[in-house]
Amino acid sequence: MTTVETLQSVLSEHAQKRVAFLLPTGTPVPLHFHITELGLVSKEFVDCGGVRRSSKACMLQTWVANDTEHVLYAEKLSAILSNAGSLGIQADDQVECEYKADHMNTFIIGSHSVNDKAVVFQLADKQTQCLSPDRCGLDENGNPLCG
Fold it and tell me: Considering the domain boundaries, does residue 94 fall inside one?
C-alpha cells in the first residue's frame, strides 16, 4: 500500500522523471495518460456484521487521450498532490488510481520502482474481505467456525 506521504516523497526525489503506471497484469498504462482528478474519496458503511465503519483514500483518476506527445513528470504530479491539501487528504491516506480500459477499474498503488527514464508505479487489485469474521462465524481465513 502506498500512502500520500510515500507518493509525495518518491515524486519529489525523482522530480525530473516521467510517471508511469503498470496494471496488475504487467501491461503499462499508455505513457501519454493524464491525471484528470485528484480527490478525497470517503465511504461510510455498515459491514456484514452490523458494525459501522468508514474509510478514505486519495484517488488519482487517469485518462488516456489522443495527444500521444503528452508526458506527465513527477514534479507536475507532486505539484498537483500539494494543491490537494485543502481537501482533507492526510499523509497516511492510501493512494488509489482509477483507470478505464474495457470498464472503470480502481486499483491501489502497491509498489514502485525507478529506472533511467521513469518512476514506475505498480497498480494492484483491490481485495474484499469479511470485516467482522467473529460476528459472521468465520475464522481469520474465512473458514466457518464449527461449534
Answer: yes
Residue 60 lies in a domain: yes
d(CA 107, CA 59) in angstroms, rounded, equals: 9
Give dist(CA 126, CA 50) in Å, integer. Answer: 22
How many helices (H) and strands (E) the chain has is answered by 3, 6
Domain extent for 36? 4-127
CB half-sphere exposure, 124, CA atoms < 13 A: 12
pTM of the entire predicted model: 0.89
What are the pLDDT digits (tens) for 44-95? 999 988 999 999 999 999 999 999 999 999 999 999 999 887 899 999 999 9
Q: Is residue 138 part of a domain?
A: no
Instruction: Give me the amino acid identity at 28.
Output: P
Asked whether residue 83 is assigned to any structural domain, the reply reads yes
d(CA 133, CA 129): 9
Determine the Cα–Cα distance for residues 76 and 74; give it in Å rounded to an integer: 5
CA–CA dist 63, 11 (Å, integer): 20
Count of domains for the chain: 1
Q: Which grid coordinates belong to 53?
A: 465503519
